[in-house]
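Appendix B. Chain record.
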Amino acid sequence: MDESQRMDQSGQGAVEVGPRIGVLMMAYGGPNSLEDIPAYLLDVRGGRPYSDELLAELTERYRAIGGRSQIVELTQAQAAGVERELNDAAAAAAGMRFRTYVGMRHWHPYIREVVPDILADGVDTLVAIVMAPHYSRMSVGAYLEQLDKALQENNASVPVLSIESWKTQPAFIAAVTGRIRDALERFPEEERDDVALVFTAHSLPERILQWGDPYPEELRISVETVVAEVRPRRWRFAYQSAGATADPWLGPALEETLEALAGEGVRNVLVVPIGFVCDHVEVLYDIDIEARELAKNLGMRLERTASLNDHPLLCRAVADAVRERLGQQVKAAATE
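Structure tokens predicted for this chain:
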């Protein structure tokens, strides 16, 4: 990739935005079957060997949720919704046409596999967004690095506009808020005011704090924005799904948070996985099975907000983030 494109991707340069705009929506990826899990696990671990115990544990987790991941299909559904949102009357009047693409970090279709299709379609500008609203160099940054590498390998010259965070998009906040209100209706009306909300996101190794990584702050802002709308009596934030490594991971963990709430006499808990935007193993197993079982043993009822998946507001949030990024680029180009 030449230096001018690197400037475009980092947001330091400005180029004209053409009429054909590609939007690459990137997600983690997951195995399509139990047989895929060894190769998938090896990819997630960057080629490092793993124990038989780790493989058996992951296999049982996927077996418990149906034997496969749905993340590709769900991301494709999100992409279809985003494309519909973007190709509105305003885009048509401006002579702009959007096309969305889906690329996975750890499974097919890999980001590197979809880049040739994007280039073959002849897009004038590529907008890259990760289906994780909160930025961390270890998560979102890694996706963008994979995209950068794939573009270099294909000698691409298409300008890339990256969206690193969309944590406070109004439609995203509205979608989460709506899911909370819907989920609270599962509890008896006389108990709803006392339901404790526990917001969760995927934990990351504590070493990111040494880099000054914004991930904890990104999450705090998102959560507090939702709390200001919902105004629950009691709420907490917890990390979940820490990796199986010896390194310390960000806390407090969901498990210890549930134990603390039980000790305070809380009997009803609503988990709000604000760091996740679709159903996958960290939601369907780690919360729906593992955390719910723990809560039951602690004498509590645990419910979870429905995942956003391809909720119209989720699709609008991503589309709005794309529009804002393009608007920033057009403005920058006009001032140069």
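Further analysis of this model is presented in Appendix C.
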